Amino acid sequence: MSGLFDLTGDVAVVTGAGRGIGEGIARVLAGAGAAVVCAARRVNEIERVAAEIVASGGRAIAVATDVTSAAALDALAERAVAEFGGLDIWVNNAGGSPIQAPLTQLPEAEWHATIALNLSAVFFAVRSAMKHMREGGRIVN
User: How confident is the model at residue 3 (pLDDT cuts 50, 70, 90)?
Assistant: First the structure.
């Protein structure tokens, strides 16, 4: 990856970094030289990803985060800055819906939870990131 682009000196936050696409994004960013903050609710998953990045020579930490909480997202951005000295890249990867059902059968509470995870979380994350992002920073939704 380092031949494609160089992110040496950049600090990246990746939500949903414990598995799947988020894990892949975290690994690619670390491989390109970025310090990576792996965020998700499942602590064991993000700790594994961060440990594997560190074992391969990269810099990474795991931060347990509920992306539906604006306060948790503020704390995540602050932790990135405190740990690595800045914030340059924020990837809003966390999302999904645990219930797959026809619209007519979808419980209202699940609708609100899905909106909170897939829409509101992105808004709050971008707001949190922008408070700390260095000039030229990038946000990927």
Answer: low
